[in-house]
């Protein structure tokens, strides 16, 4: 037991900030927005949480993003502290903030801007057309996509090695801690596997794809979103990528045994660092 951990959490504001960071990785300004305190106060609390090993900081472009961390040997305490729901005001403020984060700005949509249109609204419309499938979402990240899927699916299984990412998901989603290298999925367990921006984190993507094939029922589909080849080597140490994009995702799917494989470029980001996104789809 470390006294500094308890001393740090003994302050109600720090406890509140810690609970927020256990749900979502946030920049200082975002924490400020939820807790309604000034920048220097929030920065001070974040520094103390970091010093006690209760938060991590990650540089993301112009921002530093903070997430809750569990100090070694305090797993039980971490679970206890994150088991309670957030106070209602904080939960609503966080929800609003996340909504604003994902809503495209007029600038972001460029000449395509239309009042009232957002990528989430478009995604929800398209997802509403899916039959009620059993879906595995592998590598959930913020969980935004996973949560959207839950609305119309028969069952959603979220898989990630990061327990905190899984903990953020709504309760209707089944969470499985596991790795892409050793997927915790049974044979023929799902009708659709989604891997969005996670396959580049494994050294041997074909092995992961083969396991996905096993996990699919006959006729089931896989959809992989990933990056086209790029030269941003910083993604290796900053984001844990093992591949700087994929030259031919479709070939990897075929090698793993998928049929009816097709791929296309679905997004070209014109702003630096200007990644290109590729979608590859295949059938068992
Ligand atoms: C960039 S996020 C994916 C975001 C999400 N799928 C989306 O498109 O919004 C990558 C996720 O994959 C997880 N991840 C990375 N490598 C992994 C591995 N080898 N096994 C399990 N999960 C992994 C990370 O914890 C993270 O949640």
Helix content: 40-55%
CATH homologous superfamily title of the largest domain: Vaccinia Virus protein VP39
Sequence of secondary-structure elements: HHEHHEEHHHHEHEHEEHEHHEE
Query: Main sheet, how many strands, which sense, barrel?
Result: 7 strands, mixed
> How confident overall, as mean pLDDT?
89
**What structural class should be given to the helix and strand makeup?**
alpha/beta
The CATH architecture classification of the largest domain is 3-Layer(aba) Sandwich
Give the CA-based shape: globular
Structure overview:
- It is a single chain.
- By secondary structure, this protein is α/β, with parallel strands linked by helices.
- The chain folds into 2 domains: 3-102, Winged helix-like DNA-binding domain superfamily/Winged helix DNA-binding domain (Arc Repressor Mutant, subunit A), CATH 1.10.10; 133-283, 3-Layer(aba) Sandwich (Rossmann fold), CATH 3.40.50.
- Helices cover 40% and strands 23% of the residues.
- The chain contains 13 helices and 10 strands.
- The strands form 2 sheets. It has a 7-stranded mixed β-sheet, sandwiched between helices. Strands 1-3-2 form a 3-stranded antiparallel β-sheet.
- Helix 11 links the parallel strand 7 (190-196) and strand 8 (216-227).
- Helix 11 packs across helix 13 (249-256).
- The chain is globular.
- It starts with a helix and ends with a strand.
- The mean pLDDT is 89.
- Bound molecules: S-adenosylmethionine (SAM).
- S-adenosylmethionine binds next to helix 9.
């Amino acid at each position: 037991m470390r006294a500094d951990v308890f001393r740090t959490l003994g302050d109600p504001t720090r406890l509140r900030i810690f609970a927020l960071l256990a749900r979502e990785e946030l920049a200082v300004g975002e924490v400020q927005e939820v807790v309604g305190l000034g920048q220097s106060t929030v920065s001070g609390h974040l520094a103390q949480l970091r010093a006690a090993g209760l938060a991590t900081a990650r540089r993301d472009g112009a921002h530093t993003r903070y997430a809750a961390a569990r100090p070694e040997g305090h797993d039980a305490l971490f679970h206890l502290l994150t088991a309670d729901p957030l106070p209602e005001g904080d939960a609503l403020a966080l929800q609003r903030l996340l909504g604003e984060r994902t809503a495209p700005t007029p600038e972001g949509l460029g000449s395509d801007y239309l009042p009232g249109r957002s990528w989430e609204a478009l995604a929800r419309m398209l997802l509403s057309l899916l039959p009620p499938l059993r879906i595995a979402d592998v590598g959930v990240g913020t969980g935004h996509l996973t949560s959207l899927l839950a609305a119309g699916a028969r069952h959603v299984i979220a898989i990630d090695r990061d327990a905190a990412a899984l903990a953020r998901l709504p309760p209707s989603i089944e969470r499985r801690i596991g790795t892409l290298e050793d997927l915790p999925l049974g044979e023929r367990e799902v009708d659709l596997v989604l891997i969005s921006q996670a396959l580049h984190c494994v050294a041997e993507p074909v092995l992961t794809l083969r396991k996905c094939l096993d996990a699919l029922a006959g006729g089931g589909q896989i959809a992989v979103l990933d990056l086209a080849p790029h030269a941003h080597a910083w993604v290796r140490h900053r984001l844990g990528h093992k591949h700087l994009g994929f030259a031919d995702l479709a070939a990897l799917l075929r090698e793993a045994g998928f049929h009816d494989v097709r791929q296309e470029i679905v997004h070209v980001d014109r702003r630096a660092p200007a990644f290109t996104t590729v979608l590859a789809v295949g059938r068992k």
